[in-house]
Amino acid sequence: MRSITGILLGRLMRNIMRSPDTIITVAITPIMMMLLFVYVFGGAIEAGTDNYVNYLLPGILLMAIASGVAYTSVRLFTDVKSGLMARFITMPIKRSSVLWAHVLTSLASNALTILIVILVALLMGFRSNADILDWLSVAGILGLFTLALTWLAVIPGLTAGSMEGATAYSYPLVFLPFISSAFVPTETMPKVVRVFAENQPVTSIVNAIRALLYDGSVGNDIWMALAWCMGIMLVAYFFASKQFKRHLG
Questions:
Q1: How large is the average pLDDT for residues 133-137?
Q2: In the chain, where are the structural domains located?
Q3: Which tens digit of pLDDT belongs to each residue from 169-178?
């Protein structure tokens, strides 16, 4: 017998597959940005690497995830406003299954997006000497980052008064990589901008992924990346759970 979470997860995944605008926005947008930066701006950007797509890819993956989790807010907002959420929580099921279905849907759909972006990057010349353990570490970091932002997305999904309000929080997350080491080394930035860039989560996560993919020497970046992901996830989970309990009455 399938679990309630599995049934709800299947419902959400079917909705995603039937929605081409979701696929276009989440998969095509980061690919277009990667093409733009590599083939239009790449020749003018000094990143200290012969192959700019190698330098750029980790940041593009984070932007894809930040864009993708916005749809978690949209799906939750739709369930709340349509009354479907209220109906679910009155049924004799484990109520946390409702939220976990949305979270796992985000994890699955973003994994698909990441795979598509990496395949396109390979066609553009991306190459890595990472071994299987390095790739598993990269997958783990990206998974934690997805969970952290997804639980953050749950909050506006439950509280927003409009569709625009449910997705507005994602805009700063999508553009945060621009003020990090995702596109250029932080050493090239003005001092004030550099201080911010070097002490925000995206830089640590990007640096850790980049090190795992290309030289295998991550140093403290991987611990900083994990700390940021876990910290954001725990705080977001706390407030998301608190808000969900309010919906339970």
A1: 92
A2: 4-247
A3: 778 888 899 9
